[in-house]
Pirin family protein
Amino acid sequence: MQKSRPLIHIRHGIKQGATTSFIPEQYFSITNPFVLWEHFTSKKSTNHSLDFHGHSGVEAISYPLKGTISHYDSTPQHHIINSGDVHIMTSGQGIIHKSTTLPRQSVSESFQLWVALPASNKDEMCKPKSQLFNKNNFPLIENNNSTTKILIGRYHQYDSPIKSHCELILLDIIMTSYSTWYFTPPKQHLSCFIYLKSGVVYSANNKLTPSQMGFFKSSSSPITITTTNQSSRFIVACAVPLKQPLITNKDSVHSCENNINKSQTTINELLLNSHNLNY
């Protein structure tokens, strides 16, 4: 068997309130095209709300595990994102949105991933788009030891209904104890990470515990994950790195300052007129 892809960096994340963030700007050269990964967890019965704010230059993927997210944006769309659904917001030239997380039995939990858009007008500066995909439409690949849910991209000849602007694969995997999960991403998918939600796993002799993120070495080697004496759940993301600068002002990511400035003007205008959205 081919040698598995090693982990080069393991992160515990920075927690602020109910949100733990894992990709600071100084790591963009390692994580490209991934520019944000957040794990939101709350055990409070109250709703969590964010008023209108703007983004551009990224594709934002939201995936609630427990509870519901009510999402409004300037496309204009209103989506109710239930547990297991996936919402993808292509911010492009600039979008504003607001969201409210509604707990279920006093628990809210969700993931959010941002992927930088390729540097072309049809991608990075495209017209914004907001799409919701129902949990029943995602392929589930089952074998004796694992179940893999294909959130985005292709896995073992099965395709997700979501088509990203980036060449991206996003998988949600549940494994039994004392088992191995093996995946060889397409050759150009050199950027990969794993995030462990529960259990304990090993990858190329590196141990991961819950709420840790591991970045794999840029390589065409396969990814091998092995469980211990307990079942585990984890997310794996793989993508083709972008051959462009990644410049951020925290809310947006672009390939150049000119695009950041143009998009910020668009976002400011949308915020000034947000009262016209009637939400």
Remarks:
- Residues 257-272 form the longest helix (16 residues).
- The longest strand covers residues 34-42.
- The mean pLDDT is 94.
- Residues 69 and 81 are 5 Å apart (CA to CA).
